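Budget justification note: compute hours in this period were largely spent on complex prediction jobs such as the one shown. Inputs:
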Amino acid sequence: MTTSAIPSRDTVVIKPIRGLAPLDLKLLWQFRDLLFAFADRDIRLRYRQTVLGVIWVILQPLLGAGIFSIVFGLIANMPDQGVPYFLITYSGFLGWTLFMGVVTRVSPSLIAHASLIRKIFFPRLLAPLGVLPSVLLDFLVGLVLMVVLMAIYRVAPGWGLMVAPVCLLTLLSLSLGIGLVAASLSVKYRDVQHIVPFFIQLLLYASPVGYSVEAIPEQYRDLYFLLNPLAAPLEAFRWSLIGTGQPHYGYLAYSFVISGVALLIGTIVFRSVEREFADVI
Amino acid sequence: MSSDDIAISVRGLGKSYRIAQKSPHSTAIEALLHRFRNSVERTDSEEFWALRDISFDVKRGDIVGLVGRNGAGKSTLLKILSRVAEPTTGEIRITGRVASLIEVGTGFQPELTGRENIFLNGAILGMRRKEIARRFDEIVDFSGVEKFLDTPVKFYSSGMYVRLAFAVAAHLEADVLLIDEVLAVGDAQFQKKSLGKMEAVANSGRTVVFVSHDVTALEALCHTGLVFSAGQLVQQQVPIKEALSIYHRLSRTGGANEVGGRVDLGDSYHHFRAFDLIDGHGKSSRTVPIGGELRLRIDIQADDLVESPNIVVKFENSSGQRVLTVRSPRNEHAIERLSGRSEVTCTIASLPLAPGEYTVRIGLARGLEEFESVEQDIAFTVCNTDTFGDGWGANMGFTVASAVWQIASAANDSSSPLGSGCGQTGSSVSEGALIGVKPGIHAKGG
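Corresponding output:
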């Protein structure tokens, strides 16, 4: 080697950790480039291996929204609140895609990196976190299409748009929390991988994606919001874009807290089983 | 030695694994059901200590080889040092940046190009993007794959793949380098190159911990060695040669049941009862001079009749590679049958093995099919003596041969033999046909 050794005199202490392991932020920071390397790889692979590539990213929510428009708008004849029904379902799908993308891509991330985890040391948290950029990119592509659709249908957002980031943050941390728990469990129990897609499928119908909360009888709405923390951010996100329904600030705050707790639990579960990964995987 | 000079300090290190006894729950449902049923009793796993109470220090700039049989705990130790696995007990302090070459090419993505993989793999090994970019040309140069940089690595030959992977890892700027069996990859030329690279790394003042089954590589690269056996550190840091000979002594006693030199097999085998290496006087011996005579005595008890058997004698070098196989003949001199008690002696008049440590094992075959193989082996040493009279005791290579040299003078048209060292010409090996010499270099040891 031609270059001189780095004059690093940092001492690393390796010893068994009892109880809860604190998050080593310094280490995460040292490895920050790996996050982007993982993301870079995911994005390249996604657009290189699939024939449709970027078209697929657009087609997925479009088709989903189309089918839901037919099922909920035409067949079930749900209220459209003066907006083309397709916009209702598409805006629902936009938020949903973010949630679903994170959960379904984070939960298998440890298994997918099994050979790395067995052989090389890196902050394990980077495996799940590394999928986030590519999910966010997909979301951005969908968002651009949303803008185009809004221009076509001549629907302009109002000040409510300010609420959108809060909705997205809620969806993101809720999905990451769920994804981290699923990822941790799937190392030991492989059936988690089969449970997650099923659970996602159920949740799609239980959430205001193809319909607005307005379609739910008033007496059940409170229960609906309480049981499904996804409902408030999805509904508020749609409201912020196209102005249908109501933001339900109270329940949005409730979901925000729930999602924060979910992320905390996810991180704790991940950290507590992390040290066994190399032994089990 | 002051504490500043210590790169790695290990104290009371232990690693235990839980081995599930009855119910390995691989599904969440099963585990949940089990938890409900047996909420009280929870001991259905057994503890296995892969490492126990290990303490040692490694000085800065030292190149240490971890020596031991498979399962001795070397790789587990390396895993803990590289922080892949967590220790169960004890503490390790490592000063400086650690890089591990535990398995070359882990994290390579077949679909990505060579260029993309350099960046990905570098990041996985903990390099900053800037750092990789800075050393990019050097890495490409060392790997020798510049022509295929923009080809997905799935189209690479395995040699190219490995070269690229090693190149990335070898260019990591680290103070402590942990290496596990990386030399077992690539062609001979690249192995030489990588060995040279590692020597350069070590000579630049970095600390290297090296695990390998390849004794040649260990000897060439390491200054000192630590000897492990069954999860314990049986020999603290000593010069590598000493460590290797301790390792050999250990493997010699490990497993073989030696009674006064003779390996007594008891009733463990159908036909073999005992075997021994003996000298010219029939006494048990464990050394053979270079190019000297080796005698193997085998006691056989055949209660049934064994028709036209082939006795197989197998020699392995210290890397676990078969270097020589000698079989009883199948021609007119074949052993016709074995019955009752017999004592078979196999004499190799001039053992063609270079100085070093070897083991010999025996087996019984019919044709090529070996139907009885003795697990136990005898370890012996081929000593370095000037048998061939060429003044070159230390041999270069894996085998030795006596040679006849002739020099023809153009002037008087006559040739005269110059004679050969041990008075024997050719390579005839008596009472046994030499069927294979495999001088593999640095191939992966078992």
